[in-house]
Specification:
Distance between the termini of chain A: 57 Å
Oligomer: homodimer
Largest sheet of chain A: 7 strands, mixed
Strand order of the largest sheet of chain A: 3-5-1-12-9-10-11
Structural class of chain A: alpha+beta
Number of strands of chain A: 32
Strand content of chain A: 15-25%
Amino acid sequence: MNDYAVIGKPLPKLDALGKSTGETQFLSDLRLPGMLSGKVLRSPLPHARLVRLDTTAAARLPGVRAVITAADTPQEKFSFMPALADKHMLAIDRVRFVGDEVAAVAAVDDATAEHAIELIKVDFEELPNVLDPEAAMAPDAVRVHDGGSNVAWEIHQEFGDVERGFAEADEIFEDRYETSRVCHCCLETQTVIAQAQRGGRIELWASTQAPHTLKSEVERLLKLPEGSVRVYHPPIGGSFGNRLVVDMKSPIAAILSRLSGKPVKIVNTRTEEFETARTRYPYIVTMKTGVKRDGRIVARATKVIADNGAYNDKGQATVSAAGSSLAALYNVPNLRYDGCVVYTHKQPGTGFRGFGNPQLTFAGESQLDMIAEKLGIDPLEIRLRNANASDTTTTFGAPLSSCPMSECLKIAAEKIGWNRRQSLPPNRGIGLATMLHTGSGSRHYGYNSASAGLTVTEDGKVTLISSVCDVGQGAYTVMAQIVSEILGVALEDIRVIGNDTDLTPFDLGAWGSRTTWVNGHAARDAAQRARDQLAGVLAGLLEAAPEDLAFANQRIFVRGAPNTGLSFAEAMNHVYKKRGQPLSVTGTFIDELAPECKDWSTATPTLATACQAVEVEVDAESGQIRLVKAVAVHDLGQAINPLAAEGQVEGALAQGIGYALYEELLMDNGRALNPDFVDYKIPTFLDMPKPQVVLYAEPDSTGPFGAKGIGEPGLVPTAPAIANAIYQATGVRLHAVPITPERLFMAMQTKRA
Amino acid sequence: MNDYAVIGKPLPKLDALGKSTGETQFLSDLRLPGMLSGKVLRSPLPHARLVRLDTTAAARLPGVRAVITAADTPQEKFSFMPALADKHMLAIDRVRFVGDEVAAVAAVDDATAEHAIELIKVDFEELPNVLDPEAAMAPDAVRVHDGGSNVAWEIHQEFGDVERGFAEADEIFEDRYETSRVCHCCLETQTVIAQAQRGGRIELWASTQAPHTLKSEVERLLKLPEGSVRVYHPPIGGSFGNRLVVDMKSPIAAILSRLSGKPVKIVNTRTEEFETARTRYPYIVTMKTGVKRDGRIVARATKVIADNGAYNDKGQATVSAAGSSLAALYNVPNLRYDGCVVYTHKQPGTGFRGFGNPQLTFAGESQLDMIAEKLGIDPLEIRLRNANASDTTTTFGAPLSSCPMSECLKIAAEKIGWNRRQSLPPNRGIGLATMLHTGSGSRHYGYNSASAGLTVTEDGKVTLISSVCDVGQGAYTVMAQIVSEILGVALEDIRVIGNDTDLTPFDLGAWGSRTTWVNGHAARDAAQRARDQLAGVLAGLLEAAPEDLAFANQRIFVRGAPNTGLSFAEAMNHVYKKRGQPLSVTGTFIDELAPECKDWSTATPTLATACQAVEVEVDAESGQIRLVKAVAVHDLGQAINPLAAEGQVEGALAQGIGYALYEELLMDNGRALNPDFVDYKIPTFLDMPKPQVVLYAEPDSTGPFGAKGIGEPGLVPTAPAIANAIYQATGVRLHAVPITPERLFMAMQTKRA
């Protein structure tokens, strides 16, 4: 273990006090002078032609300040990938899902805006729809968008010789898995405030994890020159990938503000949030795996059909990224991956913590237990035999700088009591699952770099200007710890400032478990430069060479002589007041491989592994499932803040449990049946045991202080671990999540019959 | 002339559109959620003992959230110079001027807060007072503060041998001058919002020109650890030195906020602003000048008694700084300066544009005309004979890097039509006056440096994070022009961000005409570093050495071949998206002499000179004075933005005209008689001719692009120029400002009699 002062310490997040006392002002709390309420008229039908749209009465209603339809917008198409753009901000002639944006109003208050929405006369001519992705792939299927097929995008990758691999296999398994449509369930719904300035610029206060992306996409949608939009991102109540969406409310609010001359706020109702805020992509996964008798996987061919919903967002990206994570998971010499994203007349999907990986890991790790059973190998042992290891290279050529998968498996087995597995009471089961996921973002976008400004103030405090989005995960705290470690200042004396795209350098945003790795490097570089500069100024005063100065405990002193030197505050006072000098620097991290990244082999600087193990008890009469114990062992390189990292894992685990057992947005003819927290159940404290989180914290050679990201992995292996445990408890294996009591009960009945 | 693209161009200020359309949100416009109204109970007497103070009824009033007296405050004493601290934020047992703070309340609205103030029962026992500074110097005078004398501070400087100088003089003149108490008259009154956070920090939104100073002084007053206060400074409606004051409303609002748990806003009423917001120090100046028959000044001894009012603020600093400006004005070999600052039971003074120099220049430049007349020398000629010149050294050893005083004199004479002077119609007069003033701040504080962060964004825009306070003078625009010149980007593509002490590096603030010089250096360094870095990245692409690349017209190209290369936006796109690199730098300016500054000889990096000339017409029957023509010739080194610089001069000139002719806060027993804009007259458009402003813009060797500051000089020589013109028109010389028609009429009557 390294002997760090702050790195690796379980410190409360810097924003903990404000959050826990209610002092924090969230985006929802923000009100600007003269602010109007904006509301959106949405399609009630999954597919229809817009026959008539009459806003006259709405516009005449006293208190209404602006009413817009597509005619008032630039009619630019949007998608996350510009090449796949297919979504107008307001429907032009057709609506393609229940919730599709048709018109919008701004009025003096919510009630007036709602009334105005009711006064908009709109006639729809319902059209035939296609709701099932496999049906949508049929040649004669109704087209969601004109021209071509409903397959929005596809990918085909092969490494090694898959057919030869299958030929050499002793056993071949082929199974189909289906995953459900789940919602991000942010407790604060999507919110945006737009303020159009007379000079032409637009200010947006938005729920976003990727403010710079939002900025440039809104500029493009509004056909504004680059640099016209400024995005502020105050604290928000949840993101989980959902706030990567460039929601149409942002450009809509901007236009309403420009027309009304006032700031306009649009907030999703909870129903709108469930029906339109985008969901995790449901995948249909067909997995064919060839193994040797000893359990070694020699070939795997995976097919994915992702339900895109009506418009493109990150379907393409999740199918690709998850494919590479699955391909890297085990040491398999021959791999094929065929994925596609298919339009349906439903709410579009988007990225969601895990980014496709929970879907594929559910398939792969469920199947691996089936393989183990067939081969008579212990599920733990079969994973150890196939596990990847540190300092190796994946089948597709990516270096694994660190991969303690075997270690995580063994720890999880020990903590869950794997050796009890054969002597459990009836209706009990223990299962486990592993995963591999990026711990450093993705280079797919040509830019995976960061910079940060750092000023040490005259009173010995530190300001770090960083692009990190603190969406509640503790990113500011992690940056502050890195700075604190290097400069020896107290954590509470470091202020991280960001939240404004005019202020912060370009950044890809908080996703892909990249923040600690990428922005942490920049923060570290900035702190080191400040330290070097400070040592240079103080060397004479302390009669030592700059390199012999130590920075610790809020003091600067000659290394080995902590009684020498001066306090950090005194030192800064000396620098400013006695030397008349400021101390400001810029730190930079350049991921030089990012622009070169052409395929999976360089897409990810480093990956993180994990193993989760659970014990369940199933009520044989009702199918009720009780989670008795949950262990999550997570590799994260050097933990910067174990407390925050455990929080990440615990929160993700809850979502993983929801994914495994409870959550599904049910639909009838494209309309959500359960768009509220009464009928859409997410786990509460009562539904989960206090999980045992173990951080496997061995430094990785690529990360700042050896750190890797931990934002997403916590839910990736949860569902298959639970499914595997349920199988042991019941002998029943479901190939779809969520494994509700009802479904389990039916399957148990079938098995008994 | 240098061939600049942006420097030296008369460009509209970046904030002009927002200001002129009413879009700009000033501090007064700001409302925070749950914000309370704060009001201050003030002394109605100039000197009294606090016998009883009962807040019970006020505290019981529904809607009142906090009531405080001195007992609720840390009772720390405040002054601008900590060694001279003498002011409690709320009076403990005595009040010392009409307006002294006694108690304060916070309530749900203004009316409730005002009512609560009325309900506070307070009994005063009036004490004898002293209102005249000379009377206050008597040994038996009532003491404003216990112990010692009423002389709060004094300075004694001598250079050369003054007595020998007087002995060698052919003529000796000794005169007494008095200047009035004038108010800054900001159109937005002093405003503060404080929000106490649960973690202990205080956020202040304040009218301030020196946010970092405000921050540390409020920390000291509240006995909080350094770094506890964060100051935001939104656009404000006027400053002029007044917003350098650390007004007691800031710590009072902070305490009210802490007690109430809500943000508290306190706004001066216009009456409070006149009675308590501090004024220019009235000076009594006794000037003894020895001259040779040819007009050369050989010795000068100046005595200043400054009326401090009841508490210290910047009396000491103005008396010292103005003394050095006067001492540098002409090439006088023997100089003595004796200044003191004397307590009286009146509203305290503070810094005001010119910082003591208008007072002393009124004395010196009035007397010089008297000397010229006595010696039979033309007033222009006597100044040319005594003028300082570039590349010389003042009597007290300060280098004059540039001093085009003779040039300014000649231009002013030509523009006003000096040769008409002997043939003017009756009751007309032409007068002129010169001045020397810092164009680069002051090093007296050990720190005269600056830093700035600069990011070039992925879309080719530039963000400059600078500590400059844009108080309406165009500081942001000047910084942007410097950056634009170096990087070749359009002015509107540069965003200057500041306004927050957590965000910006330490800075002394916007005063002493220092912003362009000090912060301009830092901005220039930042832009140059960005350019160097960019040239390094692009050299290969453009197949040229980095030093051969030119940056102009929003393009980067090989020098001499403007058709080569690429647009700046394309270049940045290349850097970010193709090279995967960010472009962020830090620029620094270190004024290495600042910490060494021990006396006047190094106090000012560079000085600016000016000459103003006016023509007046006096109504012989009524004493009414009409300003016929006004010429202002100002040295400012290289003008960065002549339009903004002219605006500075025009605005200051209006204040100078008010100082000369109209403005005086009249007092009776320590109470202001005219605390409103009806009875306290400031010049309007109707009172001033369109001034002819000439910028003498020769680069200075010390400044960024050769620039010097121009914030203050515009009003320094105005009053004596007008007084000298009135003398020519009437034969009457008043030794005090303002020269009101009433006073002039009385003096003309006396002269006739």
